[in-house]
Amino acid sequence: CGLQPFPEAEAVVRRRAAELGCAVLPPYPAESAVGWLPADTPAFLRENFGLALRLCQAAGIVPAPERFRMPALPGRFEIVRQRPLVVLDAAHNRDSARRLRQALEARWPGRRFCIVLGVVEGKDAAGIFAELLPAAAAFVLVELQTPRGSQHGALEELARQSGTRWRLEASPSANSLAGEESLLFTGSFHTVALGKALYPAE
User: What is each CA distance from 90 to 35, 39, 122, in whole angstroms?
Assistant: First the structure.
């Protein structure tokens, strides 16, 4: 069972495991990733790696460090450009937005981002916005074209109340974002797809 930020979620897992007569194993600590992953790997990925190591142990598999390669994770702390710095992360709930902000702060201390943010209906727009706000130099709010709808109206109100520089762009372009030194596309895989279209990996 991976680390659960919400006790009620872990309670569900443990209750179901008890019903099935299954053991519940904790993940290896994040420090287990030392020697396997690059030193600047975000904490949430190191925690995921600890879970993978525990699964290997449970399955009787002994992984070999010399054969391990960190897989590409599209849309998960994905750095596609250095100049300007462009980071893509589909963080679409409050917890993942918090972990993203922590990863940004650890990798680039003190840096603020122009955050291109789009959130679909049904997601915690207020929670996502609140977690990202400390990392924001400005927000570019996106009107996502999805069957589920877009929360750009709610994001506008949150941006107004925050006092942070912001603007709404139905369809941002590389020209409209020119001059920004650090860009973060987040809030949805739809926003990540926009970032990939505007800034193909170098």
Answer: 27, 22, 15
